[in-house]
Amino acid sequence: MTYFALCRAAAAAAASGYLFTACAPHTLSSTSPVALNQFAADSVLRRIATAQDERRAAALLPYLNRPEATYRRAAAEALASVQSKEATSPLLTRLREDADATVRRAAAYALGQTADSTAEAGLAQRISTEPDGVVRRYVLEALGRCTSRAGLLTLTRLPPALATDTATLSGQAWGLYRAGLRGLTSEAAVSRLVQLVGRGNPVSSRLAAANALARTRGINLTSYAATLGTVAQQDAHYAVRSAVTAALSKAATAPTVPVLLATLARRDPDYRVRVSALRAMNAQMYAPVKEAAWQALTDSNAQVALSAAEFFLTHATNEPGSMFLGKANRLEQWRVRATLLAAALHQSSPEQAAIRGAVQERYAATPDPYEKGYLLKALGEDPAAFDFVQRATFTPGQPLVVGTYGMEALVAMSRQPTFPAGRYPDLALALRRGVLSRDVAVMGTAAEAIRDPKLNLRKLLPSPDFLIQARDQLTLPRDLEAWQSLQQTIDFLQNQPATTAPVAKAATHPIDWALVSTIPAGQRVAVRTSKGDVVLRLLVEQAPGSVASFVELTRRGFYNGKNFHRVVPNFVAQGGCPRGDGWGSSDYNLRSEFADVRYGEGAVGLASAGKDTESCQWFITHAPTPHLDGRYTIFAQVVQGMDVVSRLDIGDRIDRVELIK
Fold this sequence. Notes:
Elements: H1 3-14, H2 43-53, H3 57-60, H4 69-82, H5 88-97, H6 101-114, H7 120-129, H8 133-146, H9 152-156, H10 166-181, H11 187-196, H12 203-215, H13 225-234, H14 238-247, H15 257-267, H16 271-280, H17 286-296, H18 302-315, H19 321-329, H20 334-346, H21 352-365, H22 369-379, H23 386-393, H24 400-414, H25 424-435, H26 440-450, H27 465-471, H28 480-493, H29 513-516, E1 524-529, E2 532-538, H30 544-555, E3 562-568, E4 572-575, E5 603-606, E6 618-621, E7 634-640, H31 642-647, E8 653-660
Antiparallel strand pairs: 1-2, 1-8, 2-7, 3-4, 3-8, 4-6, 5-6, 5-7
């Protein structure tokens, strides 16, 4: 059975459920024969995938009319990555007329990915006529990506005949979620989402509705506080509880919410819910939640402790800085400690100079470049530390990450309301020095600050000549992010429209089909870290170009000795950067591969600076993150070691990455 057949079987068995993790091939035992992937023996599938990689919609359209459902389905899925409106009408035809449900499902997915408003009517009409429940769910979700404000009513009110159909309920929830991400909502839609998050609905509906309530901007959930509070405490699935807990931030004025968030931060058994509770707390509820946040600083999970420190940094006011300094000095986790030191400096207390001195002493004493970076980040809360941070930023021969954090700290302190006006010329000189430093991270960060209208540096740096000089020294596509930042600032100073970024074409790095043909459909990879091993299953049939690149880099030992440079609580752990700070890249770009897989817990995606700019950096999700669906390539899935992923922190080492059986 092929990988796609397995996924189709799973979908049929689930009937309507949202898959929390990407569909994954069956696990191969050490004695099983190696199962080659679908591309190894099928040149037609390779041609379809090549046309997808080259973004040739016209070449894909004829495959939609092939007699073989396999090729029609593959072409529709390929068009989900190409995202050309040229395909809208042919995809609607497949959705209406194809006899194979899996082809119709792929067509609906591709229509949603294309997000063409002209597909709205065709999708809406299909809701009542589609006989397959799974396809209907896809149609409703796609409608959410395409609908207008006027068409939102179709998503909100289901046909009476479908009111109890679980697949339809799931599709409605996901459709309202996708519409909400686009800023399309209404009182009726919010009310319906609150109903869908309730007990008795399928977990897929609850997850989608919870995320919609958490991520849709501008909605007030105060009147639903009691209902949402019950879900946050009682739902059986941690991801639903976590998202609903996050949504409670939009009901913050309800008197029961602060106490509830404090309780969840203390007692929920899942660390991701505790993180959401801390993040949902705000300055208005500071007093009733303060003690719970204080206790969370010593939570056994570092992500929770960090979220508590970030709460104090963001929301504490009129607190004695010495209180935070004393607590920070007793903490063992350096990232939590540095964040609490930032909170101490943020208070502008009489002990400011002493606290600043303590942070600077820690900076001098620690050998860890990531801790040094976070201590510079803490000093970014105190404009009086400008000279110290500037010296640290431009010290020759130091690890790259220190300069990156240092420039970010200089920019952060310049945005503080207490930054002295008399120091703006010094800031301008530091930013100019950063642009000319030849360090892509320092260059990009400095250029971004120069175009910040709040800093108003145009009078001090009126000429873009030095920016043009720096830009022309960059190498594309490797230095794309720095190039983009410099070019945007050049356009800003010259009062010109934004310049289109020069995204590399497929011809510069085509899919290595010879390599792809050697990768088993169930190939596993061991990521051996300083915290333990994480085992991935590569999704070669969904992302052949991305997997081929990852396998080639792995065989070269590219990832050995790298670090996790970005860890965001209850979101992602990211690594693979050759610089160690997130600004590094390979010498080539990959094209985005948006297969019909979802960002559930343990999905492994490629970082990018926009569509078709993927490279060597990758991330692992801590929990379902559906706002990433269809926007970032998923090329692997964690099959073992999620407990390790939950413990990863910035600076943790990737000892080696290796292919295993």
